[in-house]
Design a protein that fits this description.
Blueprint (H helix, E strand, L loop, with lengths): L14 H9 L1 H19 L2 H13 L3 H6 L8 H26 L4 H6 L2 H5 L5 H30 L10 H29 L2 H21 L13 H6 L3 H4 L3 H23 L5
Helix pairs in contact: 1-8, 2-5, 2-8, 5-9, 5-10, 8-9, 8-13, 9-10, 9-13
Length: 272
């Protein structure tokens, strides 16, 4: 007697995550290329900055140099920490997290296609978590790509004083910064269901948190810097000291809490 095997439907445990990555691949590749190109372009200027940048930085007010971390631009780690990984890349990463996080649930809800998704054997929790998992995967891709770009420039741009592991540590911190802002955008989208609101609020919070991290000490509000994700991202100087496990843990826990709040609200809100 021959047993008949009934074909099983494709699992929904990962299909939303993989489909999100597939359908968004052009946008994700564009963001990855843009962030990596910006990082590489600024990193390539290090030899010129090492030769004359220190003197130029001394012309700036001390408070501004402290705020922008420009007291050691003559060293490779100091230059990269103040420009590439201290300003340009994290701000682009923040906007990436906001843009992708806005698509986790708010884009479908706003366009009216969420009902079509929910018609499948898929819970709201699974939808949100799988979409967020796709964001985490994209963030990891950006981190790896930037790391490879820094290694490619390490010789030509005279960045050899920064070790391979230290570059990796900085890129791990970068990945978690993206995830943190993506989690914030995911939570806001789960509450509001409006993509424009998600991007705007996340971007405003990001800019304010960057300003708090950079300038709080200049106005006597040192404690405010500890409320900013940027503090846990860069202040431990990963390019010199490697991974800061405390900072990484704070960013990871904050992301998990934000996503959990988003899931709770998404499950208890009328999406009609």
């Amino acid at each position: 007697m021959t047993a008949t095997v009934t074909p099983q439907p494709a699992t929904t445990h990962t299909i939303v995550c993989t489909e999100t990555l597939r359908t968004s691949r052009r946008g994700l590749l564009g963001w990855t290329a843009g962030i990596t190109a910006a990082a590489g372009l600024y990193a390539a200027f290090y030899p010129q900055m090492a030769a004359s940048g220190a003197a130029q930085a001394e012309n700036l007010p001390q408070g501004l140099r402290d705020a922008l971390n420009m007291n050691d631009v003559a060293s490779a780690a100091g230059y990269l920490s103040s420009t590439v990984f201290g300003l340009v890349v994290p701000l682009l990463a923040m906007f990436f997290g906001a843009a992708v996080g806005a698509r986790v649930s708010a884009a479908d809800e706003e366009s009216g296609t969420l009902d079509l998704l929910m018609a499948h054997p898929l819970t709201r929790t699974s939808l949100l978590l799988q979409r967020f998992a796709a964001l985490v995967a994209a963030a990891a891709g950006i981190g790896v790509t930037v790391w490879l770009a820094m290694l490619a420039l390490r010789g030509p741009a005279e960045l050899g004083s920064v070790g391979i592991g230290q570059f990796a540590a900085q890129c791990v911190h970068l990945m978690l910064l993206i995830v943190c802002f993506g989690a914030l955008a995911t939570a806001i989208g789960a509450v509001t269901g409006r993509r424009g609101t998600v991007f705007a609020v996340t971007a405003v919070v990001g800019v304010i948190s960057w300003a708090a991290h950079s300038f709080a000490g200049q106005i006597g509000l040192d404690w405010a810097a500890y409320l900013s994700p940027f503090h846990y991202y860069i202040d431990s100087e990963p390019l010199r000291n490697g991974i800061d496990f405390g900072g990484v843990a704070v960013l990871a826990v904050a992301s998990a809490v934000l996503v959990a709040l988003g899931v709770y609200r998404f499950n208890h809100r009328d999406l009609g």
